[in-house]
Specification:
Helix content is 36%, strand content 10%. The chain has 17 helices and 12 strands. The chain has a 7-stranded mixed beta sheet, sandwiched between helices. A 3-stranded antiparallel beta sheet has the order 10-12-11, with helices on one face. Strand 11 and strand 12 form a beta hairpin. The structure holds pyridoxal-5'-phosphate. The site of pyridoxal-5'-phosphate has 14 residues, from helix 7.
């Protein structure tokens, strides 16, 4: 108990790079100009010159290297330790994926290179497409969407195109209250009204609520499975039957398929369309806005509507892009999505193989359940159900001392861990959502569990310690509202 993983930040009192600037200091050594030097003022106009040329700091190469190396020590990363953000699946990204993605023939390929010159690259895309189809049990795929939310939008647009072609004008998409927040956003952007479905006391879709809501006006049910409580929808076959019987389609948010691989397949339990988050499930790096990959997979009935181009094999047996797709919803991303992200995913799937992927999901589930059992005496479990890849606690016990989830999360930083997701899913007041992923070993999980137990003790004995945490990080508690609403992102010289 009370073991600290690490000191959180190497503090070097780093100044801004602009403050290191000294007139005339440079970080380059170029040959002398052997042509007349251009007169910038005559080219740009003397009035504009200060506005057009930014106020660059004048620094040496070593100044730059040290500055950014020190800054990088303030940033927590998966390479530094467990990153238990629930829903985000921050798993370790094996270096072999990176190595392959950087091969010249992969990273250096021009996206407009003729098909004949990039047969190997096209083969990689086709192989990945086929493997994803096998993993999910669906019939066809587009690898183009660059993020999970983009896959969702493409999926709902396909549902709309399919129904519209059949003369249907259904206007509503049903979304359980345990769904990921991007789901309603995608449905609305695709032109649907969203109706929220209440979960039952086990954290699953209530069949009664679904029966009542599933009218002739409903185009689809959009289901995150396993849901954001980490719970598998055990009535999925009944759910699919109700939706289909009333003429709707079943969309599955498959961002959490890292809990299902080799164990079950959405295509086998009635899903019509789904997306995957390769940047979560298949280990390509993510966070900070990408790049990601959110392939969208469909059953046969929706295949004509997939974004174009798809990769296929032509009559001569060559790999090619198929643009001849008259029913397609169109392009959702330039070229063919984030190619090197797709390569990383392929590398990960091939390196693991079928048995390996099954083990990935099994260990992800084991790790989440290990944490659940070890912390159940310290933290409230609002839905005490068997979980898959993540577990959601709440701050109910600590709230007796007027402590919020934020106080717990901030204190965890003093123990050298990135905090878990807090205040989500919305159906759990004071949620603490923990996703360890399969890449963590028992040693790191035990350190995390000890830290969480220690914090639960401190909540009883010294709540102020939590209230003012973090104490050991370089920057103490931030005003989160100001940071979100009025971020200062730009440096300006004080005159
Ligand atoms: C369940 C679920 N659905 C959708 C998304 C959206 O994915 P993205 O952030 O790539 O748009 C996420 C992201 O974490 C997710 O956890």
């Amino acid at each position: 108990m009370g073991i600290r993983k690490s000191a959180p930040h190497v503090t070097q009192n780093e100044r801004l790079i602009f403050d290191r600037s000294a007139p005339g200091r440079v970080g380059y050594d170029l040959p002398r100009l052997d042509v007349p030097s251009p007169n910038l003022e005559s080219v740009l106009g003397s009035d504009n010159i200060r506005d057009l040329i930014p106020d660059f700091p004048e620094v040496s190469e070593m100044d730059v290297v040290r500055h950014f190396t020190r800054l990088s020590t303030w940033n927590y990363s998966i390479d530094a330790g467990l990153y238990p953000l629930g829903s985000c699946t921050m798993k370790y990204n094996p270096r072999i994926n990176e190595r392959v993605a950087r091969f010249d023939g992969i990273a250096g390929t021009h996206p407009l290179a003729p098909e004949g010159l990039v047969q190997g690259n096209l083969e990689m895309l086709k192989t990945l497409a086929d493997l994803l189809i096998e993993i999910t049990g669906m019939d066809a795929v587009s690898l183009q969407p660059p993020a999970g939310a983009s896959g969702e939008l493409a999926g709902v647009m396909m549902i709309r195109a399919y129904l519209t072609e059949r003369g249907s004008s259904r206007k509503t998409v049903l979304i359980p209250d345990s769904a990921h927040g991007t789901n309603p956003a995608s449905a609305v952007i695709a032109g649907y009204a969203v109706e929220s479905l209440k979960s039952d006391s086990h954290g699953c879709v209530s069949l009664e609520a679904l029966q009542a809501a599933m009218t002739e006006d409903v185009a689809a049910l959009m289901l995150t499975n396993p849901n954001t409580l980490g719970i598998f929808e055990k009535n999925i076959l009944k759910i699919s039957e109700i939706v289909h019987r009333r003429g709707g389609l079943l969309y599955m948010d498959g961002a959490n398929v890292n809990a299902l691989m080799g164990l079950t397949r959405p295509g086998d339990f009635g899903v019509d369309v789904m997306h995957l988050n390769l940047h979560k499930t298949l280990s390509t790096p993510h966070g900070g806005g990408g790049p990601g990959a959110g392939p969208v997979l469909v059953k046969k009935i929706l295949e004509p509507y997939l974004p174009y181009p798809t990769v296929s094999i032509n009559a001569e047996g060559k790999y090619c892009f198929d643009f001849d797709r008259p029913h397609s919803i169109g392009k959702v991303k330039a070229f063919y999505g984030n190619f090197t992200t797709l390569v990383r995913a392929l590398c990960y799937v091939l390196a693991n193989g079928a048995e390996g992927l099954k083990e990935v999901s099994s260990v992800a589930i084991l790790n989440a359940n290990y944490i659940k059992q070890k912390l159940r005496n310290q933290y409230d479990l609002p839905y005490d159900e068997p979980v898959l890849h993540e577990v959601v606690f709440s701050n109910k016990r600590q709230a007796r001392h007027d402590l919020s989830v934020m106080d717990i999360a901030k204190r965890l930083m003093d123990y050298g861990f990135h905090p878990p997701t807090v205040a989500f899913p919305l159906i759990v007041p004071g949620a603490l959502m923990i996703e360890p992923t399969e890449t963590e070993g028992r040693e790191e999980l035990d350190l995390f569990i000890d830290a969480m137990k220690s914090i639960a003790d401190e909540a009883e004995t010294n709540p102020d310690l939590l209230r003012h945490a973090p104490h050991t990080t370089r920057v103490k508690r931030l005003d989160e509202v100001q940071a979100a609403r009025r971020p200062v992102l730009r440096w300006k010289r004080q005159i």
